[in-house]
Amino acid sequence: MEASLKATEAAVASPRDAVFGDCLCAVDGTRGSFAAVEQAAGLVGAGGQLTLLAVTAVTGAGRYRTAAISPQRVDRVLGRAAEIAQAAGVRTARIVDADGPPAEAILREAARHELLAMGAPAASPLGALLVGSVAAEALGSVSTPILAARTQMGHAPTPGVIVVASDGSESSAHVAELAGRLAREQGSRIVLVHAVGVESHAHPHRIEQQARELELAVDGASELRVLARHPLEAIVETAAGTGASLVLVGTRRLAGVHALGSVSQHVVRSAPCSVLLVPPELPR
User: What is the pLDDT of residues 269-278, one digit of tens each?
Assistant: First the structure.
């Protein structure tokens, strides 16, 4: 990989209790990618670091052969992203990747960071790539949480309301726990949503336990909503109805067409706000 690093490559020590202290931001010059930088800066805080990645690799063939971002725009785009981060008091480093392919380059670099942030699919070509067929294969093994950021008028960079989706399974416990830590750190209110339907195999006591733990984590600034809906409908409806800034949803070890058809992938496309995809076995 041909890489140009500016600022520093050294990892910045994050506060001991910070949820995320080190984030990779894939920027492509769109509003969505700049929103990802702003929101990631709010998550890592002044003690953290953002690594700004621009991929100039050529994609496609024939008349469809284009660059993910032209070399002429790289300095301007990365400079604007750095300004956003630095305004929040967050340190930055820069990487330019000329090899690609874009989705693979981003996921390869993301493995070295605690969080990957980028524009959501509707707003960012790179975001669309990451929910495309190539990225779906990689998402079957990636262990880095992914923030798919959307711009929201009137919303602060840090989340005011966080919606966490839980199916009540054992694997959903770490998603709820992460949501509680984020809400406590950001001063957010939290809404736990569970969909009850033909596909629900959850144990009710697990949902109730998660609700109690979240209530304790945020000093009562939480609520539980159990809806008789398809999971996608329940999550999107709750996010819209509460004016949420962020949705947390767990992912499973799926690949190919199975990953593309998963609830988490559909939430990324359909949610009215930013979405944090949480992989299983997230390192603590």
Answer: 889 999 999 9
